[in-house]
Amino acid sequence: MPRIPAVKTAEAGFLLKLAYKFVGKRFGAVPEPMAVSAHHPALFRASGLHEVLVEKASKVLPPNVRELAVYRVATQLGCAWCIDFGTMLQVHEGLDIERLKKIDDYATSPAFTDQERLGLAYADAMTASPVTVTDEQVAELEREFGRKGVIELTYQIALENMRARMNSALDITAQGFTSGDACRIPLP
């Protein structure tokens, strides 16, 4: 149970109920981080709008690179909710989630492409404390994905660091978007 309880639908005003209905329809359940943040309506709205805009803007990178890098941040920071939700997103993207079991061996595992390895190593370097990103690493990413791609990857990794740290601080744990290897939430 989170350190701050979720705002229940019965306690929600009209706009919050509408938001809950929208995301519930999209994901099969209201994401708990969203329901917890609903205690602060202005930040709730800002966060929701931000997430929608980031999703719409993130079209430069291949989805597999983006989703794996975000997932890697979740595993590095130990955010059970992010791992659960991220696995579901990968299922919805049609990605192979079986290889997520090998993510710690991404540097040598044949389950990952060279592009994915670049994104995963960058996620590790950005998530390390202190950050260990190098000029050479960014140059290699730019050659592979272009400047827009590097900015998108950097933004997505930084955003997941924020999400995972917030969820961990508030003790928001796995919600059941996936169960073992199978996604319990139907594809949209």
UniProtKB/TrEMBL annotation:
It holds the Pfam family CMD. InterPro entries: AhpD-like, CMD-like. Residues 58-124 form the Carboxymuconolactone decarboxylase-like domain. One of its GO terms (molecular function) is peroxiredoxin activity. This is Transposase.
